[in-house]
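User: I'm putting together a teaching handout on how multi-component assemblies are represented. Below are the sequence lines for each component of a complex, exactly as they appear in our records. Could you produce the 3D structure of the whole assembly as structure tokens, so the students can see both representations side by side? Please keep the chain order the same as the input.
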Amino acid sequence: MANTKHDVIIIGAGVVGCMVARLLSRFKLDVLLIEKDSDIGMGASSANTAIVHAGYDPKPGTLKAEMNVAGNRMYDQLAGELNFPFERRGDYVVAIGAEEFVKLEGLRQQGLENGVPGMVIIDGADVRRREPNINPDVSGALWASTGGICDPFAVAVAAAENAVVNGVTLLTDTAFQDFIMEGTRIVGVRTNRGDFRSRWVVNSAGLYSDVVMHKAGLRPEFKITPRKGEYYVFDKAEITINNVLFPVPSATSKGILVTTTVHGNTIIGPNALEIEDKEDRSITRVGMDEIWQGALSLIPSLSLRYSIAEFAGLRPGGNAPCANPNVKYDKDFIIEIPKQVEGLVNLGGIESPGLTSSPAIAVRVVELLKDAGEKLEEKPEWNPIRRARPRFRDMLPVEQKLLIESHPSYGRIICRCENVTEGEIIAEIHAPVPARTYDAVKRRTWLGTGRCQGGFDTARVVEILARELGVSPLEVSKKGKGSEFLVRPTKEKEAEQC
Amino acid sequence: MLKEKYDVIVIGAGPAGLAAAIEAKKTGAQDVLVIERAQELGGILQQCIHNGFGLQILKRDLPGPAYAQRFIDELAGLHIDTLLDAMALNVTSGRHVSATSRWSGFVDLDTRALVLAMGCRERTRAQIALPGTRPAGVFTAGTAQRFVNIEGYMPGKRFVILGSGDIGMIMARRLTFEGAKVERVLEIMPFLTGLTRNYVQCLMDYDIPLQLRHTVKRIIGNDRVEAIESVQIDEQRQPIPGTEEIIPCDTLLLSVGLIPENELSRKAGVSLDPVTGGPFVDEKMQTNVPGIFAAGNVVHVYDLVDWVTQAGWLCGRNAAEYAISERKRHGRRVKMKAGDNVRYIVPHTLDKESLAESVQRLQMRVTLPIEEPVWVEVMNGEERVTRKAELYVRPGEMVNIDIPQSAYDAVQRASELSVRVIKRQGG
Amino acid sequence: MAQEHRKFICITCPQGCALDATIEGGTAVKIEGNTCKRGVDYVAGELKDPRRMVTTTVRVKGGVHPLAPVYTESPIPKPRIFDLLAEIRTIELTAPVKFGDIVIKNALGTGIDVVASRSIAAKSEGS
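Assistant: Of course. Below is the structure of the complete assembly, with chains in the same order as your input.
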């Protein structure tokens, strides 16, 4: 593979990289998507609030605002083509007390300027009727009907699968190290798995997008400062908040939400802590206390007793000024083909609302390539549809019956809390973007995310992964090399004692 | 071949389910079915290879699998149907059960009486909100036990165990036997939460240090656990600055409590006690839904399997009687109320007539340990119905008290009985 | 003769009585805190010849599980536990294993047998 020359190499298989790959798979191009982790979407794409933002938050005139609103509009078609869970159920910015209520109109005006349709300000009584658990001091809310929720990893993996089925090559465990340059022209990338040559490289490296562009000598002042957000997940049998509830935003953050998810669990979070370490997804006592206090101001009746999981994600926040000099804003997205080097599509600082923006960013990348003289010829055989695989727990008993009759492995429940079957796990292990670790199976099937958090399924999934991948259980890992579950057979002596 | 309608269906083939099925059949139920999610009968006992089972009811000290085997053999001789490697997906208040397995496909069954015996699950890292990274190498003690004893793999080399529950202490010894190093057992409470004998024979015997009032402050390591940071806590369970310690290890085992497994019960409309996490039951182990019974750790977490088996017997007998005669409740009931230093009492209510038939046993857990002689007293307001002396009480060990038949008249006068555990001043 | 006080926790049954023993010349002359006679025997045993029941697993070839749980029929001397475990680690049974099968006869010359605590069916007959 190292000898073939690709047309485009995409660095980073987060939701942005996957969307770009999928859109490029539409054209007669040889596309290689490389990912440093063991699976796609392991960064910001899979640990966030799972919201498709309406677009009233970003500052008008910024790229963020434009991409947000454009991306949001694309989600219905995208969800239809790629068959990922998406619900356009609208969202609320909830004002507590008179002072906050005044700010809602400003937010609405900002939304109008950004081109967000379907916003209305409702009064406190109306909010209480729609969300009975809300803080009784609620004074009103901005209701944005185009807000939605999705499963963000499902979005990324569906796009990646569709790309792969349409001819894109995906290489995981493949880390970018440097560009291969001929003068000012990029002709390939150097990775831990060898050199790969190409005419174009797309930097969609997320948290590492600054490192990648610096290797090309670009924007030395650009810096990604990871902003950690921590979350609690609640047992869906115990706590049911059926809405997406934002607080009135502060200058720096959209604030701590209480929101439902497409899986039915209520989640709360995130806080926003700027850190230096790009891999530090640890959960902190201080952070958990902060989001807990924040969530209580929206829903005072929440109880930590019913928390079943905590996680943290890192937003790849950048410091790029808005391209429009009339707009004072210094945390904008970068989407450009820079003049200083040839052969690079440079993306950077794609933080929230990056998930919402990702399909629009992919469209912008294609436009930029066309502007740069790339003759993008459509493939007649391109298939935009990625079919959903059976999901046992969402089926009616009669459908479950038929499925088990034809495929008995769907009759064996492996995760008792979420009712995930062996058939679903096997299907994911052999999917176009295969699940090869426990966490990869978990992200795809939602197994192990319930009350017992894998207590019951772990041993069984390790066994199934080993069997289906044809490896020893000792090689089965949680999230890639170095995270294996087991160290040796019970009856073998400890190495030190031999 | 499965039937469409049973007299008694038992969900779960652990000690409670096995005993319930056996007793239901012996009591006269014709068609009895046990549904079990594992590939074999016995439930969690199959991975509890340590001894200590059977001392109370079999008068023998048996390992878990041997204890289970006695009941599995008995069941096999009774023509009881089993559906293994299967999951009950739904049960209704009308006692309709849907289940699925690779072998049977999706099955719809009806039963005259249903016994819930799903046992319990372990509390997880998330439920105690342990800070830090999320690497491989954090296991509940039971999951590790399954790997070591059944699957045949060690989940680590150097362990820290959080929680002094029985499974945690037993795993400490088990891992030591297999050549691993157990660095420490940390317990957030100021007292042991498991049985004292396990402290002696699992920790003391092998010089494994136990630190009370200690917890894990954070987990360290990105791919695999590299260390944990422990910290001492004060009376208010707040970390004491300066007491932090980094303990290098590759695995953290959690033995931080068990929760009755009642997702199915909920679907059937069974009301749950927020204190035990299990159904409210009467002296027949019947829930609020007529014809649905519950036994074992699904009701409350027991300390000894012997009591679980007894509860299974009681439950199976009553389920069979219900199936045969659809016997209704008498209706005159007395409520049980947890008094001083009692966390909960099972059963939650007693039929006032039940004492005419037999002694009635109450089982409870105390809130705090009292390491001196106590009275366990059953009270009707200020009137003492019965009492029992204990030399001490500990949260890790259940307390039993029998209401004798001679208390029949006293119970008739009561609308509520409270139980308290108080110091026996002056002996 | 000098008297010594030692505390024990009786592990004979789950009650776990806290025992206070008065010891003279290596024997307990007085024991308090026990609720039954077994407490007296326990202290005597701990002083002269402490013993523990050992439960572990042994490798099985061709079984539905790779291991069979085993136990010592009666408690063995505490200092011999790790020797016994080492010996057990060298053994491999062949399925089927039957509950009660003797895995090691007269283990380490103690006169005590190591016995299988459950049956392990051979792989083909199990599934």
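A couple of points students might notice: The beta strands of chain C are 3-9, 18-24, 27-32, 51-52, 55-61, 67-72, 76-77, 92-94, 102-104, 114-116. DSSP finds three helices and ten strands in chain C.
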